[in-house]
Amino acid sequence: MTQAEEAVAVCFVVRIDDQSLGSFNSCDGLGVEFTLEQREEGGNNGMVWQLPTRIKYSNVKLSRPVTKDSSKIMDWIAGMAAGVSRRTAVIEARTLGGTVVASWALSGVVPVRWSGPQLSADSPKVATETLELAHHGFLGTAR
């Protein structure tokens, strides 16, 4: 397998703690932003200090066609009726052959929203669902 083939992910397999949510065909929002504060030092005109102050993690959006795995999301969300608890998630990018190309472990995961398919007899589209997750950051290598 060449490097170009290894870099192509066709699905994203998601686990919350040890509970599988199945595979998704779209993963958007894996990212981090460092907020910087600028400080000017008296007598030093050659530079401005860039000091990191906060780290912000964007929400992760996962989408897929509705499948039998859709009930796994509902079971996870229903389990939070007594109270929301933060979990650990692992997202694995996999090739068609099932080889893991990359993986990300997220700490402090909570669901932000789930949106199901818009069903209409007038519009014969694939029924899709989207799950949005918030998190408190990345853990070390997920494996």
From TrEMBL:
Q: Name one GO molecular function term.
A: structural molecule activity
**Protein name per its UniProtKB record:** Phage tail protein
Which organism's genome codes for this protein? Saccharothrix syringae
